[in-house]
Each structure stands twice: as structure tokens, then as C-alpha cells.
Amino acid sequence: MLLADKRSVIYSFASRVWGRVAVYAVGHDQYIARIEPRHFTEYHKPFLGIESPSLLAAVHAFLASIGPGFLLGIACVLVGWMGSRPRISDRYVMNGVIVVIACAELSSLLSGLWVYQTGRSFYPDFLFPEVTKSLVITQTIQVTCYLASVLFSGALLLAILCKRRRIRPLQVELCRD
To answer: What is the enclosing helix (H) or strand (E) of 45?
Structure first.
């Protein structure tokens, strides 16, 4: 396979990972905008004169998902395809991405529930532009989402690496038959 062909396959795969991340990010930010609309209208940069909190949330989420989504996709390719070990299946990776998303969202929701019930966050005060309960809830959810996404993405990469190490090379399996 030519290098350009390999690159297009890699970019295509990374785009598929990013697509899942983007859909999640847009959906996630929709409920953030409903809990505290000012989270996006006052505490994010304006964008093309958009005033609707939901639309602004969607635009910011979509744009913010590009880097992390592609990075995760490229990292999955490097860990799952490169080297002499057999390549990991695309299905395994894509299912893993869904698990990362689900775990990050569950962590985020639980952190928001914690703030809702206790009235305080477990993050330092400098992370909050103001301390109204609704903004502390949304900011805690967002910070937790970012941190959990990094943590669970790392776990996915480790799981891919471990699965690849357990797969026997095709030549060894053919010799045994």
C-alpha cells in the first residue's frame, strides 16, 4: 500500500472516531446550556453573532471536539495498528470509543449530581468564574468530563495494547494446525 493510501485510511479512521466524539460533545453541551445558559453566552467567546445558548453550545462543542477526537483516533491507530503484532479490529476500537464516551458522561453526570445535592464542588474555586449553584454545576460537569475523557481514553489505549499483545501472530496459529 502506498504511503498516501495508508494516510487516507488512517485519516478516515480518525475521522470516524472524531465523529462519535463530536456527536457526543454536541449532545452533552445541550443539557449544559439548559442547566445554565450563561455558561455559553457569557463565559465562552462569542461566535458569529450567535445568541442562542443551545446553538452556541453546539458550535463550541463541535469545534472543541476536533482536536481531542482526531487525537484519540490517531492514538488508536498507532497503538492498534502499528508494529509487528496483528492489527486490532476496527470494531473493537469503535466499541471502546463508545465505552469511553459512556464512562466520561456517567462521571460528569455524577459530579453534577454531587454539586446539586451538596451545593459545592470538589474542584478549586479558581475554576469557577462565579459561584452560583447552576454555574458551579455546569463547570464541575465540564471539568469532570475533560478529565474523565483523558483518563478513560488512556484506559482504552491500554486495553488495545493489552489485547494486541494477547493476539497470536497468524504464522504461529497456522503452524499449530
So the answer is: none
Q: Looking at residues 104-109, what average pLDDT do you find?
A: 97
Any domain includes 106: yes
d(CA 119, CA 134): 9
Query: Which cell numbers hold the place of 11?
Result: 485519516
Q: How many domains does the chain have?
A: 1
Does some domain include residue 177?
Answer: no
Distance CA 140, CA 113 (A): 10
State pTM to two decimals: 0.85
The residue type at 106: L
Give residues with Cβ within 8 angstroms of 107, minimum separation 6.
Answer: 144, 145, 148
Q: pLDDT tens across 144-175, in order? A: 999 999 999 999 999 999 998 887 665 444 44
Parent domain of 20: 3-170
Domain for residue 175, yes or no? no
Residue 165 lies in a domain: yes
Sorted by sequence, the CB contacts under 8 Å of residue 85 that are 6+ apart come out as 164, 165, 167, 169
